[in-house]
Design goal:
Residues 198-345 form the Tetrahydrofolate dehydrogenase/cyclohydrolase NAD(P)-binding domain. It is built from twelve helices and 13 strands. Strands 8-7-9-10-13 form a five-stranded parallel beta sheet, sandwiched between helices. Strand 4 (91-97), helix 4 (101-117) and strand 5 form a beta-alpha-beta unit. The protein has helices at 22-32, 54-58, 64-86, 101-117, 132-144, 163-169, 181-188, 199-210, 230-239, 254-258, 310-316, 327-346; strands at residues 16-20, 35-40, 47-52, 91-97, 120-126, 150-153, 219-223, 243-247, 263-266, 284-287, 291-294, 302-305, 319-320. Helix 3 (64-86) runs parallel beside helix 12 (327-346), helix 4 (101-117) packs across helix 12 (327-346) and helix 8 (199-210) crosses helix 9. The chain folds into three domains: 10-53; 87-196, 3-Layer(aba) Sandwich (Rossmann fold), CATH 3.40.50; 199-329, NAD(P)-binding Rossmann-like Domain (Rossmann fold). It is of the alpha/beta class and 350 residues long. The longest helix is centred in the first third of the chain and has 23 residues, at 64-86. The protein binds NADPH dihydro-nicotinamide-adenine-dinucleotide phosphate (NDP) and 5,10-Methenyltetrahydrofolate. The site of 5,10-Methenyltetrahydrofolate has 19 residues, from helix 4, strand 6, helix 8 and helix 12.
Amino acid sequence: MASMMFTDCSSSTTSLLIHLNRRSSTTLLRQSVGQLRLRTTVSGRACSLSIRSADAASDKVIDGKAVAKTIRDEITVEVSRMKESIGVVPGLAVILVGDRKDSATYVRNKKKACESVGIQSFEVRLAEDSSEEEVMKSVSGFNDDPSVHGILVQLPLPSHMDEQNILNAVSIEKDVDGFHPLNIGRLAMRGREPLFVPCTPKGCIELLHRYNVDIKGKRAVVIGRSNIVGMPAALLLQREDATVTIIHSRTKNPEEITREADIIISAVGQPNMVRGSWIKPGAVLIDVGINPVEDPDAPRGYRLVGDICYEEASKVASAITPVPGGVGPMTIAMLLSNTLTSAKRIHNFQ
Ligand SMILES: NC(=O)C1=CN([C@@H]2O[C@H](COP(=O)(O)OP(=O)(O)OC[C@H]3O[C@@H](n4cnc5c(N)ncnc54)[C@H](OP(=O)(O)O)[C@@H]3O)[C@@H](O)[C@H]2O)C=CC1
Ligand SMILES: Nc1nc(=O)c2c([nH]1)NC[C@@H]1CN(c3ccc(C(=O)N[C@@H](CCC(=O)O)C(=O)O)cc3)C=[N+]21
């Protein structure tokens, strides 16, 4: 885990907040109300239970986990149709360098997801102190391997490696992450089509589509401008005819800009940065942020929160993705989808 933060978006909420001794009263409350949200404080000693009617809260949730499952089911059907028709099984290769725990978890989840839809997975693990040449060798091995249709180099790479060099080496036909500069360049140009669109931004737009959110002519704000999320998310929204503004770390008064937005995609990496007061009533919120915050009561000792203060924002927005269970599962579903698309293209299978 890169960093662990203590944070909380202190609530100026209209929902009923009850401060209580956690273990004694949770069960009782769970029995008496439809839906609870449990929020631990920084100290970990007390907690707040925010109680509201199940309908008001759940109506707004953009359920990425459920949509991802639907997409995986669609992919499963296509993978077996392809196997039966032409005897080809799509293959995804992942290269993991170093021993970051979060990266290892993502890679494990990707492998499980591949298995669940019938995609063959390949994996190379290299030590933190490996050389760039060793990574390059793995990349070119997979470039030449006909049973591999997608290659993913897990980021971040160790700092002694040149990320650009390595990403450039991935064959553009197998660039299922969509990080090759030629793919990004095509995404940015009118009238051009990339072979692959980066998975996380693609997953965000897919959620908007599947929840029938109008994008054309709307004001969209993307917070963050990274190569892997913010920048391609802004390009995609623009391709969908939104009017797009990008906020980054040097932007002054970001909250004034977000208050104008009909759609916000946040990819910052700052827990609970976007507060309820930043949001226009009725806006649609897509929270890409995955931030670990310490929680002694969680099984892993931490829990994940987004960039958006869910407690506050869900009261103002018309729809919002949760963390976890929002964009994360969609990223993996889009990776599987890109791998299937790649195998179909390589084998000219419709
Ligand atoms: N759900 C998913 O599938 C995925 C989730 N993530 C998560 O998304 C988040 C962002 O990831 P990533 O794009 O890789 O991160 P980066 O660190 O590469 O980029 C963060 C961006 O946020 C901007 N930023 C940082 N602080 C502020 C601030 N206070 N106000 C406004 N902008 C700010 C930075 O601005 P500047 O450019 O000026 O430095 C930068 O553009 C992380 O939490 C990550 O874990 C990432 C990938 C997939
Ligand atoms: N080459 C490359 N491609 C990536 O797409 C890529 C990467 N490198 N490096 C790291 C980021 C991060 N990322 C996530 C994927 C899934 C979840 C995910 O499934 N999250 C679950 C929670 C998982 C948990 O509980 O730990 C959720 O949000 O519900 C999160 C984050 C892909 N990334």
